[in-house]
Design a protein that fits this description.
The chain is an alpha+beta fold. The protein has 3 helices and 2 strands.
């Protein structure tokens, strides 16, 4: 749903599909304290990654823009 919404709104984005048992996904979930997917990040103009959250948080952020 997040991917479809970003496409409809015309945002540029990248997405990765990771195995649920992947060490990377486990580490990201530990760092963000979010245990569900999607795990959505925004990269600012300086290349810093900011954790947005999941689909609900992305929707709230896009509605503010």
């Amino acid at each position: 749903m997040a991917k479809n919404m970003l496409e409809r709104k015309g945002y540029d984005f990248e997405y990765l599909i990771l195995e649920a048992s992947s060490d990377i996904i486990t580490e990201i979930k530990n760092i963000t304290q979010q245990q569900t997917v999607p795990l959505i990040f925004e990269v600012d103009d300086n290349g810093r990654e900011n954790f947005i959250g999941g689909y609900a948080e992305l929707t709230k952020k896009i509605c503010k823009i």
